[in-house]
C-alpha cells in the first residue's frame, strides 16, 4: 500500500497526546552524565594502573608504541568497563568512503577450549579486525584476490558504548585499510594530515616561542538539518529513497518572512533536541548551541570545538544519533544538502584553527595584531595555501547533493574566495603597499599595525556569502555539505597549510642564513604571500554575476558541478602535494576519486529512477483522473446546451493539463533512455559527466512539469505530501 498523504495528515493531527508523555530527560545536570559512555582518560585511570595509564597516554599524545602485554591489560580494562556498563558486544567502528560509518558486531561471549562459556576480548580483537569489507567501495584498490579490508585501532579517539534500544555495544574507532595498507577510509589520511600540519606548525612556532612543543588542529562543526514528521516522510517516496524532494511546488509561503530563523523552537522539536543532546553528552560530544535556521523546519546544532580527529568522529556519530533519536520522536531528520527547492539547503560549516600546548590559538589576532607576527604568519600562510589549492578544497566537498548548493545560486558559491573582514584587510593592505621590506620598513609596519583597532569589531561584520571566511579567531569552511564527512575537507586544509608552512620556514631560514634579520625575513615572506594571494581575497557579494565575471578575470575557477571538480584530485599538482608530504599516494587518490565519481552517478541514477516511478505510479494517475473529471464536466455541460463560450475555464484547464501530461511523459521516457546510455559507459568520469549533462537537466524539467500539475489538480487527488505540509505542520 502506498502511504497516503491524507492518512499522514490524520496521523500528525493525532500526535499531540502521544508527545506529551513521550521522552523527557532525567532532571540531572549535564556534568553528571557527560561522557558516561566513553572510555575517556578519567575512566581509563580508574581501570588501569598509574604506570600503564601514563604509557597509554604517551601513545595517545606522542605516538609511542605499546607492547603486547600492555595491550592485553588495556583490552581487559576496556572489556571490564564495557561489561560493567552492560555491553555484550564489541565492534570496530570505521568510516568507509561511502561517507557513513560502519560497524560489525562480535560478542564478547565465546567458548573456551573446554567448551565453557566465557567472555573474552583479545588483543587482536582490540587492535585489528578483518570485517568482510568486500562490498565497501574501494575504487579499484582491491583486486578480487585480495579483497580483504582491515580495521586497525586508532587510540587517539576514545572507545565508546553505543546504546541502541536495549542493546549496548563497545565501539572502537578504527582506520580501514587494504591488505597492502592503502587507505579505504577518511580517517587515515586525516590522521596523517593532522600530524603533518602539527610538525610544520611546530617548527614555525619555534620562531616565536620555544615553549611550543605541540600544535593541534581544532575543528568545531556546525551541523544544519531539517526535520519532518514521519508520516509525511512516508508519504514521499523521494524522501524515503533519496533524502530530498524530487518534485513539489513551493508553498505559498517559504522563508521570505525570515520568521523561522532564530525564532522560538517548536515544543516538539525542542524535545527532540533535548533528547539528542543528552545522547550526545553521554557520548562525550560537547554540543552546546542549537537554533532554528533560515528554512522553515531547518535547525542547527554545534558543539564546542575539539581536536580535529575526535571532532570528525563526533560529527559522524552525531549524524547517526540524529537519525536514531528522530525515529523515537516519530520525526525524520533530513541531512541532505537540498531537501526542498526554493528554501535554503543545509551545510556543515567547518571552523578550523590550530592550538598550542601553551594554550594559544595560532589564529587569534589578539588585541594588538600589529605586534603579532606569529598570528600574521599563520593567517597569511593559510590564505596563501587556499589561493594555491582553491580547486582542491572545492573538490573535497564535491557531491551530487552539494551541487544543489555550490554553484546553484545558494550559499556559498562554487568559486572559492577568502573573506577576512575590513580590519584585517586593511592590515594586509598596509603591509603590502606601504612598506619596503628593509629594516626601517619592518619597524614602520610594526608601528603602523599597532594602531589597528581592536579586531573584535570585525566579528559582527560577517559575510555569509563567502565560502571560506575568517571569523575572529578561526577560518570557517562553509562549502562543506551537510551529509559530508568533515575529514575530507579537513585533510585538504591541513595538508595545504602544512605544506605552505614548510615552504615558509625554508624561505625564512634561507634568508636568515644569508644574513637577514629574522623578523624582516618573516615580514618579507608575509608580504610576498599577500601579494600572491590577492586574487582570492574578496569581501563582496559572492552571489552576484559581477563576481563571477570578476573571478574569471582574477583566474579563479568556477567548478560548478561534481564532475567538473573531482578531476582536481588526480591533477599532477595534487598528486605531488599529497605524495611528497606522505598523506595519500597516487593510487589512493585515484581510488578516492573513483569512489566519489561513482557515488555521484549512483545518486543521480537513484533519483532518476525514483522520479520516473513517482511520475508513472502517482502523479500521472492523479492527473489523468482529474483530467477525466474535468472532461466529464465539460461534456455534461455541453449536453445541457451550455454555450462553448461559457466553458472557457474548463477548456483552459484541460489544455494546460494535457500539455503537462504529454510533456512529463515524454521527458520521463527521454530521461530513462539517457540514463540507460549513461549506464553503458564504463569510464567513471565519463559516466558521471553523462549523468550531469544528460540526465540531471531532465530531472529539473520534469520537476517543473510535475509542479505545474500539482498546481492545477484538485487537492484531494494529489497523492504526495505537499511542501506546506512537510515544512509548516509541527
Ligand atoms: P556562527 O554560526 O556565527 O559561525 P557558532 O557559534 O554557531 O558561530 O559556531 C562557532 C563554531 O566555531 C563552534 O562550533 C565552535 O566550536 C567553533 N570554534 C570556535 N573557536 C574555534 C577554534 N579555535 N577552532 C575551531 N573551532 C572553533
Ligand atoms: Mg558559522
Keywords:
17 strands, 25 helices, globular, alpha+beta, binds magnesium ion, Four Helix Bundle (Hemerythrin (Met), subunit A), 9-stranded mixed β-sheet, Creatine Kinase, Chain A, domain 2, Ubiquitin-like (UB roll), 6-stranded mixed β-sheet, binds adenosine-5'-diphosphate, 730 residues
Secondary structure elements and pairings:
Elements: H1 5-13, H2 15-21, H3 30-33, H4 41-47, H5 50-62, H6 68-84, E1 89-94, E2 102-107, E3 109-111, E4 117-119, H7 123-127, E5 128-129, E6 149-153, E7 160-164, E8 167-178, H8 187-205, E9 215-229, H9 230-234, H10 237-242, H11 267-282, E10 287-292, E11 298-303, E12 306-307, H12 308-328, E13 331-334, E14 348-356, H13 373-388, H14 390-396, E15 418-419, H15 422-434, H16 439-450, E16 468-470, E17 475-477, H17 487-513, H18 518-533, H19 545-553, H20 562-565, H21 572-580, H22 586-639, H23 648-679, H24 684-712, H25 723-728
Parallel strand pairs: 1-8, 15-16
Antiparallel strand pairs: 1-2, 3-4, 5-6, 6-8, 7-8, 9-11, 9-12, 9-13, 9-14, 10-11, 14-17, 16-17
Helix pairs in contact: 8-17, 11-12, 13-17, 13-18, 14-17, 15-16, 15-18, 17-18, 22-23, 22-24, 23-24
The structure holds adenosine-5'-diphosphate (ADP) and magnesium ion.
Amino acid at each position: 500500500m502506498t502511504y497516503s498523504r491524507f492518512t499522514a495528515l490524520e496521523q500528525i493531527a493525532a500526535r499531540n497526546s502521544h508527545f506529551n508523555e513521550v521522552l523527557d530527560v532525567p532532571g540531572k545536570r549535564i556534568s553528571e552524565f557527560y561522557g558516561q559512555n566513553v572510555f575517556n582518560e578519567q575512566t581509563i585511570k580508574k581501570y588501569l594502573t598509574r604506570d600503564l595509564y601514563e604509557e597509554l597516554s604517551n601513545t595517545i599524545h606522542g605516538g609511542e608504541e605499546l607492547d603486547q602485554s600492555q595491550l592485553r591489560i588495556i583490552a581487559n580494562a576496556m572489556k571490564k568497563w564495557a561489561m560493567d556498563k552492560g555491553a555484550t558486544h564489541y565492534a570496530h567502528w570505521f568510516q568507509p568512503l561511502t561517507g557513513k560509518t560502519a560497524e560489525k558486531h562480535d560478542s564478547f561471549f565465546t567458548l573456551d577450549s573446554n567448551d565453557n562459556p566465557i567472555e573474552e576480548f583479545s588483543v587482536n580483537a582490540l587492535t585489528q579486525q578483518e570485517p568482510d569489507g568486500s562490498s565497501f567501495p574501494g575504487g579499484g584498490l582491491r583486486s578480487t584476490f585480495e579483497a580483504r579490508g582491515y580495521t586497525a585501532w586508532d587510540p587517539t579517539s576514545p572507545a565508546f558504548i553505543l546504546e541502541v534500544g536495549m542493546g549496548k555495544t563497545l565501539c572502537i574507532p578504527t582506520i580501514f585499510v587494504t591488505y597492502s595498507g592503502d587507505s579505504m577510509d577518511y580517517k587515515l589520511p586525516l590522521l596523517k594530515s593532522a600530524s603533518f600540519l602539527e610538525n610544520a606548525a611546530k617548527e614555525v612556532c619555534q620562531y616565536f616561542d620555544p615553549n611550543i612543543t605541540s600544535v593541534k588542529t581544532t575543528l568545531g562543526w556546525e551541523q544544519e538539518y531539517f526535520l519532518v514528521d514521519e508520516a509525511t516522510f512516508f508519504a514521499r517516496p523521494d524522501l524515503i529513497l533519496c533524502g530530498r524532494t524530487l518534485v513539489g511546488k513551493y508553498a505559498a509561503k517559504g522563508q521570505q518572512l525570515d520568521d523561522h530563523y532564530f525564532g522560538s523552537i517548536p515544543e516538539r522539536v525542542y524535545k527532540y533536541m533535548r533528547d539528542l543532546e543528552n545522547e550526545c553528552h553521554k557520548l562525550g560530544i560537547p554540543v552546546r548551541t542549537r537554533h532554528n535556521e533560515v528554512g522553515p523546519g531547518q535547525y542547527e546544532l554545534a558543539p564546542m570545538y575539539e581536536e580535529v580527529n575526535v571532532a570528525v568522529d563526533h560529527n559522524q556519530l552525531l549524524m547517526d544519533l540524529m537519525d536514531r533519536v528522530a525515529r523515537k520522536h516519530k520525526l525524520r531528520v533530513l541531512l541532505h544538502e537540498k531537501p526542498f527547492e526554493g528554501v535554503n539547503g543545509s551545510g556543515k560549516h567547518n571552523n578550523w584553527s590550530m592550538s598550542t600546548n601553551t594554550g594559544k590559538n595560532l589564529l587569534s589576532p589578539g588585541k594588538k595584531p600589529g605586534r603579532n607576527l606569529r598570528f600574521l604568519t599563520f593567517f597569511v600562510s593559510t590564505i596563501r595555501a587556499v589561493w594555491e589549492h582553491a580547486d582542491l578544497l572545492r573538490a573535497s566537498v564535491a557531491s551530487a547533493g552539494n551541487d544543489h548548493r555550490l554553484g546553484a545560486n545558494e550559499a556559498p558559491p562554487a568559486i572559492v574566495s577568502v573573506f577576512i573582514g575590513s580590519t584585517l584587510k586593511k592590515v594586509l593592505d598596509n603591509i603590502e603597499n606601504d612598506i619596503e621590506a628593509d629594516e626601517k620598513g619592518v619597524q614602520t609596519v610594526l608601528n603602523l599595525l599597532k594602531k589597528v583597532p581592536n579586531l573584535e569589531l570585525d566579528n559582527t561584520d560577517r559575510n555569509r556569502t563567502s565560502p571560506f571566511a575568517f571569523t575572529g579567531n578561526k577560518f570557517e569552511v562553509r562549502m562543506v555539505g551537510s551529509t559530508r564527512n568533515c575529514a575530507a575537507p579537513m585533510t585538504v586544509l591541513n595538508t595545504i597549510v602544512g605544506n605552505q608552512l614548510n615552504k615558509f620556514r625554508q624561505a625564512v631560514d634561507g634568508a636568515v642564513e644569508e644574513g637577514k634579520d629574522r623578523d624582516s625575513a618573516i615580514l618579507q615572506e608575509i608580504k610576498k604571500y599577500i601579494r600572491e594571494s590577492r586574487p582570492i581575497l574578496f569581501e563582496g557579494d559572492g552571489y552576484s554575476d559581477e563576481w563571477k565575471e570578476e573571478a574569471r578575470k582574477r583566474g579563479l575557477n568556477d567548478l560548478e558541478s561534481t564532475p567538473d571538480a573531482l578531476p582536481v584530485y588526480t591533477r599532477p599538482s595534487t598528486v605531488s602535494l599529497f605524495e611528497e608530504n606522505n598523506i595519500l599516494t597516487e593510487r589512493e587518490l585515484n581510488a578516492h576519486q573513483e569512489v566519489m565519481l561513482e557515488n555521484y552517478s549512483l545518486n543521480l541514477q537513484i533519483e532518476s529512477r525514483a522520479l520516473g516511478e513517482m511520475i508513472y505510479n502517482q502523479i500521472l494517475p492523479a492527473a489523468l483522473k482529474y483530467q477525466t473529471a474535468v472532461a466529464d464536466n465539460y461534456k455534461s455541460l455541453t449536453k445541457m446546451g451550455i454555450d462553448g463560450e461559457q466553458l472557457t475555464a474548463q477548456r483552459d484547464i484541460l489544455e494546460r493539463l494535457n500539455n503537462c501530461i504529454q510533456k512529463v511523459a515524454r521527458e520521463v521516457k527521454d530521461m530513462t533512455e539517457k540514463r540507460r546510455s549513461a549506464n553503458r559507459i564504463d569510464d567513471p568520469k565519463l559516466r558521471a559527466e553523462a549523468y550531469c549533462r544528460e540526465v540531471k537537466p531532465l530531472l529539473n524539467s520534469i520537476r517543473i512539469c510535475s509542479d505545474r500539475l500539482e498546481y492545477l489538480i484538485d487537492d484531494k487527488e494529489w497523492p504526495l505530501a505537499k511542501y506546506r505540509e512537510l515544512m509548516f505542520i509541527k
